[in-house]
Amino acid sequence: MAWIKDRMVAAGQISTRKLTVAPVIPDFTAAVETGNTISVVIQMVDPDGNSVARAVDLLCVIRKSDGLVATVSEFTLAETGDGTEVSTTAKPSLIITTDAEGQCTIAVTDVSGAYTADAYLEVTPLNTLGTPGLVTLDFN
Q1: What span, in angstroms and rounded, lies between the C-alpha atoms of 89 and 105?
Q2: How far is CA 15 from the centre of its chain?
Q3: What is the pLDDT of residues 108-133, one digit of tens each?
Q4: pTM of the full structure
């Protein structure tokens, strides 16, 4: 039977570290629009929905209802609570590092105040195994 095991898994392919890496998934809590801005809390969770207690670098991008990335004259993103900005604020994309509890808060602002459709915040983990997430934001 040893020859079956040897052919199923190559030596050194399974380690304790590989078995303990849990992918992260963004979980969103979006507020209602106030003054052309929607606040979004992002909590990174594991596949079981448990909060991840570590900092995670995230790429956040705002997309319009047609799926295209917004321009700086349409939407901006800014860190407004937990987390630390890595890239420059006031643009439609932002790199942010969550706090040690895997959470960050960002503000999505409709620059002109005239956008009346749904927008989408896309969040992708950068420095760890993870799944991107998308939340719909209702600008009215």
Answers
A1: 13
A2: 28
A3: 999 988 888 899 999 999 999 999 99
A4: 0.84
3-state secondary structure of 22: coil
Class of domain 23-138: mainly beta
Residue 27: both structure tokens together: 């979980």
Residue 98's CB: how many other CB atoms inside 10 A? 24
Backbone angles phi, psi at 20, to 5 degrees: -100, 0
Quick one: tokens of 24?
């992260």
What is the domain partition of the chain in residue ranges? 23-138
**How far is the C-alpha of 85 from the C-alpha of 49, rounded, in Å?**
25
Q: Which residue has the tokens 């079956």?
A: 4
The DSSP bridge pattern shows strands 118-125 and 57-63 to be antiparallel
